[in-house]
Amino acid sequence: MAVPRHFKKIFAIRFLGYFLMQVGLLTVVLIAEPVVAEEAKYRFDQVTGKHYSLPTVITSTGQTAPDSNSDQGKSSFGSLVGRGSETIVPVSTDFGIVIEKINANARVIANVDPSNEAEYTQALGQGVAHAKGTVFPGQKGNIYLFSHSTDAPWNIVRFNAIFYLLRELDPGDRIIMFYQGRRYDYIVFDKTIVKPEDTEFLTNSYDESVLTLQTCDPPGTLSNRLIVRAKLVGN
């Protein structure tokens, strides 16, 4: 017995609806999974007392010396019951960034045009991008770094990975920059969320060395931009 045409039409519509629903769920999972995994790891480290630190200071000659801020060699009840400290080895002392609190460690690609999609997509595949026209660590002015792509959903997730947890930074937290073999410590003083069209933080000029970090907010989306700013200390 032949199946009526209207039943075939209903079946096709239902099949298409279920298919689109499954694709949508899969897309959400692919976008959310890396973010959720990073968040879960961060929370687990907090509960177990694990933290990350640089064991040495890179001097202007490229030699190393003990870091007075490091917890290496110190012991406490907290370290005995927790998982202790894990050493971070900088990916690059030529031009790199380390954020101990969130275990971020990446190479910085210099002089990337933030308006050139092909250029910044290539750069973000290698690390964090340094916006062309902004200054370098240790110099007076605005050092602008971004880890954010807008060309495709899968790249939005992929390229934000380094700065997924940037929102966990608070005033007083430390961000460490390496440039040409030297180390520069910056202390966070401001964190804000802005609209994508707000370019004020990119074009700002300063009479001191200010580091500006940009990522998306919420992580893996195009809704807003999270901006974290920090000032150079100890130089």
Write structural notes for this entry.
With 235 residues, the protein is of the alpha+beta class. The protein has one domain: Sortase, Chain: A (Beta Barrel), CATH 2.40.260. The chain contains five helices and twelve strands. The chain has helices at 5-48, 77-81, 117-124, 153-159, 200-203, and strands at residues 51-53, 56-58, 64-66, 85-87, 95-99, 104-112, 128-131, 141-146, 174-179, 182-194, 209-217, 224-233. It has an eight-stranded mixed barrel with strand order 5-6-7-8-11-12-10-9. Strand 11 (209-217) and strand 12 form a beta hairpin. The radius of gyration is 22 Å and the shape is globular. Residues 58-82 have low confidence and may be disordered.
CATH homologous superfamily classification: Sortase
User: Which sequence of strands runs across the widest sheet?
Assistant: 5-6-7-8-11-12-10-9
The H-and-E topology, N to C, reads as: HEEEHEEEHEEHEEHEE
% residues in beta strands:
25-35%
Structural class: alpha+beta
**Morphology:** globular
Count helical runs.
5
Low-confidence stretches: 58-82
Structural domain count: 1
Rg (C-alpha, Å): 22 Å
CATH architecture: Beta Barrel
What attributes characterize this protein structure?
235 residues; alpha+beta; Sortase, Chain: A; globular
Give a short summary of the structure.
The protein has 235 residues and is of the alpha+beta class.
Question: How are the secondary structure elements laid out?
Answer:
Blueprint: H1 5-48, E1 51-53, E2 56-58, E3 64-66, H2 77-81, E4 85-87, E5 95-99, E6 104-112, H3 117-124, E7 128-131, E8 141-146, H4 153-159, E9 174-179, E10 182-194, H5 200-203, E11 209-217, E12 224-233
Parallel strand pairs: 1-4, 6-7, 8-11
Antiparallel strand pairs: 2-3, 5-6, 5-9, 7-8, 9-10, 10-12, 11-12
Helix pairs in contact: 1-4
